[in-house]
Amino acid sequence: MAADDVPLLRSIQLGAALSACALGLASWSIETDHSTEHTHGLFEIREEARRFISHENARGDQQWEVLEPNLKTLVPRCAVPLETQWTPKSLGRSKPSVMVICTVAVPNSVMKRWDVHVPVKQEPNQTKAATDPASP
Fold first, then answer.
1. What pTM does this model have?
2. CA–CA gap between residue 76 and residue 116 (Å, rounded)
3. Confidence check: pLDDT of 18 > 50
């Protein structure tokens, strides 16, 4: 192989490696990020927030929609059932969110417990006419 071909070969290898990474990232989503033996998946964390919001929506006039947790979040698997609550305003978050809490993580060298803040947004209010089946 000629010395002139080395930079071209490196360019091709780099391009192939970047393409493979992009394909891997494109196929990753919350829907596919399930819990493993060592990590708690964002899918299960989001679903726990959805259960909490479903109960909150059933209780009151306000209707909320769960958004996606931060995709960069990586936490150890929880050893106990997850807990949920509204994120306290005292934590200084600018928008409402649900706090999904793990009080006891599986033994690891990083975290003994964790919480993930899942953002929510208020659904637009529907008028009575739009929701009342008796209206014309």
1. 0.71
2. 12
3. no
